[in-house]
Design a protein that fits this description.
Strand order of the largest sheet: 3-2-1-4-5-6-7-8
Structural class: alpha/beta
Number of helices: 14
CATH architecture of the domain at 14-294: 3-Layer(aba) Sandwich
Order of helices and strands: EHEHEHEHEHEHHHEEHHHHHH
Oligomer: single chain
Number of strands: 8
Length: 429
Amino acid sequence: MAKPHFDQDLSGKVCIVTGASSGIGKEIARNLGRMGATVMMGSHDYSRGEEARLELVSDTKNQRLVFSELDLARQVSIRQFVGRFHELFDRLDILVHNAALWFPTKAESPDGFELVWAANVLGPHLLTKLLRDTLIKSAPSRVVFVSSNDAGGFDVDDTDFDRRSYSGDRSYRQSKHAVRLMSGAWSGHLAINGVQVNCCSPGSKFKTNLYRRASSLGNMMSRLTASPPAVGADTPTYVAVAPDLGAVTGKFFVGRKVVKDKLRRQDEMNGLWHLLEHQAAHLQRTRTDVMTEEEIEREKAEKERLKQQKPKAPQASFADLFNKPPTASESVEEPVEEEPEVEVEEEVEQEVEQEPEEEIKPVAVEHSGSLFVDSLMSGSDSSSFIPALQLEDHSKEPAAEPEAEKPAKPTSPTGQPLYMQYMKKFGKD
């Protein structure tokens, strides 16, 4: 029979329970929700997980239960789960690693590791790494790894069963052995930060969906002799919330009692830690999850926004002051980039050279006031004023009428023009 429920007040506490759509994980979430905690439930099956959440909300009368899809065999799903958690919460008081997988034949995870190892060992390790800073910020906080009595056979050099023969039971036992070692390694890394890390075994076999892929006869016999999931949830709940465990870390619990874990060896814990860190680094290098895609999409959206921005109108240059303003009938074109003044001056000189020399006539002495102002603002002296006047546009003025034939200049009896005689008179050639 299940022991009496705890009577702790967990109001304001934020918890995560993996494998919470059924079995022991669902009962752990129920216990935490009944004590008033905010619980984020994780499971790879969305429909079953959401159904379990609604059931627990109805049973505990606690509306602060959230479900989010979590497949611990896929790093993409793990990172999505953590991202969703950080969107909703800024603290984490209790993290319960309960999810487990048993598979009858050897299979490979999407990230290239043996499937059971990826789901039961590497996935929880990566999840803890991603939540580490939040756990430290929320200290005193707790991490609980749920292992099993059926554990053993860990081989740090052959976790993928490349050299050993594979079986579902052998792979599962190795993963639960590794979970015990992993909890001891994490306790050593987080103890100084006020985060307790302990491991526990729920007991014997329970009526869960762990062996749903086993043969129908074996699965049926297992269920006939199994205990209710609520019994198995008692020890993990105790390790997660018991007030008398405030300073206890790095221990192994069975039935609310600390027992010696004969499977823990320091050399194996160190070897497993280095292996998991190496595998986690490989996952980071090969990361192609939705967070990276979101960053790419944000960058594309920013570039598109900059393209659609209307460019600023360029400031008018000195040469633009001599251009004829557009009439009302002419359409206003979009502003274009202002060409350097040097290039404009070169173009003006070319245009002046192309015009016939006889058509360039000096302008009358009556200068407009604006031209004198422009000349002074440009810093030019009076000698630079005449070329500016030569730029006046006469292309649209009416064609000049042909001048009347002028009478011939008077000449002297000798046939020389009179002005030549005057010049000689004053001694000039």
